Amino acid sequence: MPTMKLSNIEIGRRYGKALFEFALEQKQETAILDELHVLMEIYEQIPDLGEILTDARLRSVEKKQLLTKITDSASEIMTNFLQLLFEYRRLNVLPEIVTAYEQLYDEFTGTYNAHIIAAVELNAEQLDSLRQALKERLNAQKINLTTEVDKTIIGGLIVQVGGQIIDGSIASRIKKLKRVLLND
Protein backbone atom coordinates (compact mmCIF):
# COMPACT_ATOMS: atom_id res chain seq x y z
CA MET A 1 0.00 0.00 0.00
CA PRO A 2 1.54 3.36 -0.98
CA THR A 3 2.18 5.87 1.78
CA MET A 4 0.70 9.33 1.48
CA LYS A 5 3.05 12.23 1.86
CA LEU A 6 1.81 14.75 4.41
CA SER A 7 1.46 18.36 3.35
CA ASN A 8 3.50 21.02 5.11
CA ILE A 9 0.27 22.35 6.62
CA GLU A 10 -0.54 18.97 8.18
CA ILE A 11 3.03 18.53 9.40
CA GLY A 12 2.86 22.05 10.84
CA ARG A 13 -0.39 21.22 12.64
CA ARG A 14 1.08 18.12 14.22
CA TYR A 15 4.28 19.78 15.42
CA GLY A 16 2.43 22.94 16.44
CA LYS A 17 -0.03 20.92 18.50
CA ALA A 18 2.73 18.92 20.18
CA LEU A 19 4.67 22.08 21.02
CA PHE A 20 1.56 23.86 22.31
CA GLU A 21 0.52 20.94 24.51
CA PHE A 22 4.02 20.68 25.97
CA ALA A 23 4.27 24.44 26.50
CA LEU A 24 0.87 24.37 28.21
CA GLU A 25 2.02 21.59 30.56
CA GLN A 26 5.07 23.70 31.42
CA LYS A 27 2.91 26.85 31.75
CA GLN A 28 5.08 28.50 29.08
CA GLU A 29 2.53 28.91 26.28
CA THR A 30 2.88 32.71 26.06
CA ALA A 31 6.67 32.69 26.32
CA ILE A 32 6.92 30.08 23.56
CA LEU A 33 4.55 32.10 21.37
CA ASP A 34 6.82 35.12 21.83
CA GLU A 35 9.87 33.04 20.87
CA LEU A 36 8.08 31.72 17.79
CA HIS A 37 7.34 35.30 16.73
CA VAL A 38 11.04 36.17 17.08
CA LEU A 39 11.92 33.15 14.94
CA MET A 40 9.42 34.23 12.30
CA GLU A 41 11.07 37.65 12.17
CA ILE A 42 14.36 35.87 11.41
CA TYR A 43 12.63 33.75 8.75
CA GLU A 44 11.16 36.90 7.20
CA GLN A 45 14.61 38.52 7.06
CA ILE A 46 16.12 35.35 5.54
CA PRO A 47 13.27 33.75 3.54
CA ASP A 48 15.34 30.68 2.53
CA LEU A 49 16.51 29.90 6.08
CA GLY A 50 14.20 26.92 6.57
CA GLU A 51 15.25 25.42 3.26
CA ILE A 52 18.94 26.16 3.91
CA LEU A 53 18.76 24.30 7.23
CA THR A 54 16.93 21.39 5.59
CA ASP A 55 18.45 20.86 2.14
CA ALA A 56 22.00 20.03 1.00
CA ARG A 57 23.37 23.58 0.47
CA LEU A 58 25.39 23.45 3.67
CA ARG A 59 27.26 20.65 5.38
CA SER A 60 25.73 19.30 8.57
CA VAL A 61 28.41 20.99 10.71
CA GLU A 62 27.63 24.38 9.14
CA LYS A 63 23.90 23.88 9.67
CA LYS A 64 24.47 23.02 13.34
CA GLN A 65 26.59 26.16 13.79
CA LEU A 66 23.86 28.28 12.23
CA LEU A 67 21.20 26.63 14.39
CA THR A 68 23.32 27.26 17.50
CA LYS A 69 23.47 30.97 16.65
CA ILE A 70 19.70 31.06 16.22
CA THR A 71 19.05 29.28 19.52
CA ASP A 72 21.64 31.25 21.50
CA SER A 73 19.09 33.21 23.51
CA ALA A 74 16.23 30.70 23.20
CA SER A 75 14.63 28.87 26.11
CA GLU A 76 15.44 25.24 26.76
CA ILE A 77 12.03 24.22 25.41
CA MET A 78 12.57 26.13 22.17
CA THR A 79 16.17 24.97 21.78
CA ASN A 80 15.13 21.33 22.17
CA PHE A 81 12.19 21.81 19.81
CA LEU A 82 14.36 23.39 17.11
CA GLN A 83 16.94 20.63 17.55
CA LEU A 84 14.17 18.07 17.02
CA LEU A 85 13.02 19.89 13.87
CA PHE A 86 16.62 19.99 12.67
CA GLU A 87 17.12 16.26 13.22
CA TYR A 88 13.90 15.42 11.38
CA ARG A 89 14.64 17.95 8.63
CA ARG A 90 11.50 19.96 9.35
CA LEU A 91 12.88 23.47 9.88
CA ASN A 92 11.41 24.43 6.51
CA VAL A 93 7.93 23.88 8.01
CA LEU A 94 8.40 26.39 10.85
CA PRO A 95 5.97 28.97 9.36
CA GLU A 96 3.20 26.34 9.28
CA ILE A 97 4.10 25.25 12.82
CA VAL A 98 3.84 28.84 14.03
CA THR A 99 0.45 29.26 12.34
CA ALA A 100 -0.87 26.10 14.01
CA TYR A 101 0.54 27.13 17.39
CA GLU A 102 -1.03 30.60 17.09
CA GLN A 103 -4.43 29.07 16.29
CA LEU A 104 -4.26 26.78 19.33
CA TYR A 105 -3.08 29.65 21.51
CA ASP A 106 -5.93 31.86 20.31
CA GLU A 107 -8.48 29.11 20.97
CA PHE A 108 -7.04 28.59 24.45
CA THR A 109 -7.16 32.31 25.28
CA GLY A 110 -10.51 32.96 23.59
CA THR A 111 -8.92 35.28 21.04
CA TYR A 112 -10.22 35.60 17.50
CA ASN A 113 -8.77 37.44 14.53
CA ALA A 114 -11.45 39.05 12.38
CA HIS A 115 -10.92 40.60 8.97
CA ILE A 116 -13.51 43.21 8.04
CA ILE A 117 -14.11 44.33 4.47
CA ALA A 118 -16.17 47.50 4.13
CA ALA A 119 -17.03 49.82 1.26
CA VAL A 120 -15.82 52.81 3.29
CA GLU A 121 -13.34 53.39 6.10
CA LEU A 122 -14.88 52.52 9.47
CA ASN A 123 -14.45 54.92 12.39
CA ALA A 124 -13.34 53.91 15.90
CA GLU A 125 -16.89 53.82 17.26
CA GLN A 126 -18.05 51.50 14.47
CA LEU A 127 -15.05 49.23 15.01
CA ASP A 128 -15.67 49.09 18.77
CA SER A 129 -19.33 48.24 18.17
CA LEU A 130 -18.37 45.53 15.68
CA ARG A 131 -15.74 44.14 18.07
CA GLN A 132 -18.31 43.96 20.90
CA ALA A 133 -20.90 42.25 18.70
CA LEU A 134 -18.34 39.65 17.59
CA LYS A 135 -17.21 39.05 21.18
CA GLU A 136 -20.81 38.30 22.16
CA ARG A 137 -21.57 36.17 19.10
CA LEU A 138 -18.38 34.10 19.44
CA ASN A 139 -18.23 34.13 23.24
CA ALA A 140 -14.69 35.48 22.86
CA GLN A 141 -12.41 37.15 25.35
CA LYS A 142 -10.66 39.26 22.72
CA ILE A 143 -11.21 40.19 19.07
CA ASN A 144 -8.34 41.47 16.93
CA LEU A 145 -9.65 43.41 13.95
CA THR A 146 -8.02 44.13 10.63
CA THR A 147 -9.89 46.19 8.07
CA GLU A 148 -9.88 46.61 4.34
CA VAL A 149 -11.75 49.03 2.13
CA ASP A 150 -13.26 47.55 -1.03
CA LYS A 151 -15.65 49.88 -2.87
CA THR A 152 -16.88 47.02 -5.08
CA ILE A 153 -19.01 45.63 -2.24
CA ILE A 154 -21.06 48.87 -2.55
CA GLY A 155 -22.12 48.90 1.10
CA GLY A 156 -22.43 46.70 4.17
CA LEU A 157 -19.68 44.46 5.48
CA ILE A 158 -17.97 41.15 4.90
CA VAL A 159 -16.61 39.63 8.13
CA GLN A 160 -14.11 36.78 8.08
CA VAL A 161 -13.59 35.23 11.51
CA GLY A 162 -12.94 31.79 12.96
CA GLY A 163 -13.16 30.03 9.60
CA GLN A 164 -16.51 31.70 8.83
CA ILE A 165 -17.43 34.33 6.30
CA ILE A 166 -20.42 36.52 7.04
CA ASP A 167 -21.29 38.38 3.85
CA GLY A 168 -23.59 41.31 4.53
CA SER A 169 -22.48 43.29 1.51
CA ILE A 170 -24.89 45.08 -0.80
CA ALA A 171 -23.10 43.55 -3.81
CA SER A 172 -23.88 40.00 -2.65
CA ARG A 173 -27.51 40.94 -1.95
CA ILE A 174 -27.84 42.35 -5.48
CA LYS A 175 -26.37 39.12 -6.91
CA LYS A 176 -28.84 37.01 -4.91
CA LEU A 177 -31.73 39.19 -6.00
CA LYS A 178 -30.61 38.98 -9.62
CA ARG A 179 -30.46 35.16 -9.40
CA VAL A 180 -33.98 35.02 -7.92
CA LEU A 181 -35.38 37.36 -10.56
CA LEU A 182 -33.70 35.48 -13.42
CA ASN A 183 -34.52 32.07 -11.89
CA ASP A 184 -30.91 30.87 -12.03
SSE blueprint:
Blueprint (H helix, E strand, L loop, with lengths): L7 H18 L3 H17 L3 H4 L7 H11 L5 H12 L6 H16 L1 E8 L5 H15 L3 E8 L7 E5 L2 E4 L2 H13 L2
Parallel strand pairs: 1-2
Antiparallel strand pairs: 1-3, 3-4
Helix pairs in contact: 1-6, 2-6
Task: Explain what this protein looks like in three dimensions.
This protein has 184 residues and is α+β, with helices and mostly antiparallel strands. The chain folds into two domains: 8-106, Peroxidase, domain 1 (Orthogonal Bundle), CATH 1.10.520; 111-182, Glutaredoxin (3-Layer(aba) Sandwich). The protein starts with 7 loop residues before the first helix and ends with a helix. It has a four-stranded mixed β-sheet with strand order 2-1-3-4. It has helices at residues 8-25, 29-45, 49-52, 60-70, 76-87, 94-109, 124-138, 170-182, and strands at 111-118, 142-149, 157-161, 164-167.
> What is the N-to-C order of secondary-structure elements (H for helix, E for strand)?
HHHHHHEHEEEH
- Which CATH class of the largest domain is shown? Mainly Alpha
Q: What is the alpha-carbon Rg in Å? A: 22 Å
Helix content: 55-70%
Count of structural domains: 2
- In angstroms, what separates the terminal alpha carbons? 45 Å
- SS-derived structural category: alpha+beta
Binned strand content: 5-15%
InterPro entries: ATP_synth_OSCP/delta_N_sf, ATPase_OSCP/d_CS, ATPase_OSCP/dsu
Protein name: ATP synthase subunit delta
Organism: Bombilactobacillus mellis
Keywords: ATP synthesis, Cell membrane, CF(1), Coiled coil, Hydrogen ion transport, Ion transport, Membrane, Transport
